[in-house]
Specification:
Alkaline Phosphatase, subunit A; ten-stranded mixed beta sheet; disordered N terminus; 2 domains; 25% helix; alpha/beta; Arylsulfatase, C-terminal domain; globular
Amino acid sequence: MKNHLPKFLTLLFVLCANALFADGHRPNIMVILADDFGWGDVSCNNPGSVFQTPHLDRIAEEGIRFTNAHTPHSVCTPTRYALLTGRYAWRTELREGVLVSYGKALIRPGRQTLPSLLKKYGYRTGAFGKWHLGLDWEPVEGDPGDWIWGTQVFANTNAAIPVIARRVDHAQPVKVGPTHIGFDTALITPSNNTRIPVWFKDDRVIGNPAFDEQGFFRDPTVQRDSVDDYHIEHTLAFIDETRKNNADQPFFVYLPLNAAHGATFPPARFKGRTQDSSRGDKCLWVNESVGKILSALDERGIADDTLIIFSADNGPIEPPRYFSDTKHKAAGPYRGYKTDIWDGGFRVPFLVRWPEKIEAGRVSDQLVCLTDVFATVAALMGEELHEWAGEDSVNQLPAFLGETSAPIRTTMITQSNIGPMAIRHNEWKLIVDTTGSGGPKTPSAQPTIITAPWQASPSRVGQLYNIERDPYEQHDLWIKHPEKVEELRLMLKDSIWTGRTR
């Protein structure tokens, strides 16, 4: 699966990038990531949607809509890691699930990231929103700071988190956080807005938080129905400050919204608007947040010169979990939801707009993984990636610019919440280690054996689908095609143990 680009192709990318920036000016770049937002939550993907998302649809109308885009993981933290590094998160110590609330920073200093790459080219970089990638917190005096390895912190429950919180010195700057991996500035919530409900700026907690009656370290201004409004406000202030200080300096914004996660509530202005569910109301909040960004770019006269990518961190939550009696198909026609190994857990909206370079109104069925944002931005800069940077990232710039309709990516690996993995190659998708969904909540979700990716090879239990003929994964061909199962098993094993797929 390795693909070592010939030197002449690398040179070609550099020349193409130089041609894009003949005047020496590079575009602003914004990556907006909604939380638990499904493929069918964007109305341009889902004509039968019970609500409309006109601002999101506008990105598609004025740019390109990718219909076959996927997250590499069906839960939050690992996708965020993969987006910012171009590397599958199961190559780190996070082998399954999400990072616990007071877990250490998953992205380590020295690992090239989107912001560190762009800083090399003069960008000012900022992150605003839900972080959930860990921070290296300072322990209180006398505490060994070894809570990150204990079962207590991994419980991640309302009982365990306050115990760990008492061991953290929230007044001290963290040793590793957003500003240590390439961001010039950040205004984030460390986890979702309920587990560590504080505002965190650059390298420390700000405001006047205190321990509440339940033992959580809490800032009362962190409200579940307004958190994204605060992040949008700070995003716009960052843009204005950048332009005020140096109008010619390009900026990079990473905007991971909190909605439509279950930890948020819909603002009063959206309650009941969809007449479907509170989750649907929160999707309207996402649409409004994006609308504020688009309007701000228009008002400042920089819309044409700004590349926007909108996507999500995983598929939507299963309806009975946080809402019921919904008619809305958040995952569209695809099987599965957040945490699952089926496509509904991974397939997400992927909308790209850059009026200066991208033709409006295009639709693409290119296979895209969110890891690909890294190599695509690198190609845009004319950057030749180091061997150990963006190891699982593929350059999609030719698809962005409409220079090819031929397949760019033919293979992709995805992972569900509790560890089982799937490999997609051309028309086939192999799921290993589970005969169920790979999610944690129902008996059918439990895998028979969990081995990948930390054992020598995937188990001999799983599912096989021809996704070209059976895109909704209804007909398991595992028994019928043992030769294809073995071929894909070996391909997956090679990808695990060589440390890269690029």
